[in-house]
Amino acid sequence: MFCPKCGKETDASGKFCQWCGSDIESVPVKSVATPEEETTSAVGVYAGLGRRFIAFIIDIILILVIGIVSIAFFDMIGGIRKTYYLAVNHAPIGELTEAGTLDAAMGPIVASLGMLIIVIPWVYYAGFESSRSQATPGKVLMRSVVTDLDGNRISFARATLRHFGKFISLLIIFIGFLMIGLTKKKQGLHDKIARCLVLLQD
């Protein structure tokens, strides 16, 4: 057994510690946390940087696919509406070529970039992480979920705050993401801003 006062291993059959002479029976036993216990949270096990990075790559690929399909769909719908408008108003088909000018092209380009960079990732992350699964498809594959500090499901508003908090990490040269590997609870800057955790799923 170990002496509760000095911590050294002593003879279990003796009444006194052979090292410090303390009365083993009279000294209250203090629980000593093992390394395993120190890394275990009351709400679960924290997901590390490597696992979260792989989930991020999977999600980015899916977002790009969704974005390309969405932009192509809306572009097709826009082309159909314009053709219909010109046909109804008996305008010459040649007027369609005005869409090729720089001024006319900038609007759809800016709208497409806005959808791909802001709207689609926001709806994707906030929607999935506030859903019943509490995780994006990438996180599901990596067996991790997003929770509040008590391990509960987060709201769409908090998931939105967490998502846009990532832009701050980008502005400070990814330091906010590197914090995942340096903080005790494996929290990035965006996790701290939204008061969230990313935990391993049981």
What is the topological layout?
Layout: H1 35-38, H2 49-88, H3 102-129, H4 137-141, E1 144-148, H5 156-171, H6 175-178, H7 189-194, E2 196-200
Antiparallel strand pairs: 1-2
Helix pairs in contact: 2-3, 3-5
Comma- or semicolon-separated keywords:
mainly alpha, 202 residues, two-stranded antiparallel ribbon
Describe the structure.
This protein has 202 residues and is mostly helical. It has two domains: 32 residues, no CATH class; 152 residues, no CATH class. 51% of the residues lie in helices and 5% in strands. The chain is built from seven helices and two strands. The protein has a two-stranded antiparallel ribbon.
The counted number of beta strands is 2
| Helix and strand sequence | HHHHEHHHE
Measured by DSSP, the beta-strand proportion falls in under 5%
Tell me roughly what share of residues is in helical segments: 40-55%
Taking Cα atoms only, what radius of gyration do you get, to the nearest Å?
Answer: 28 Å
Low-confidence stretches: 27-39, 93-100
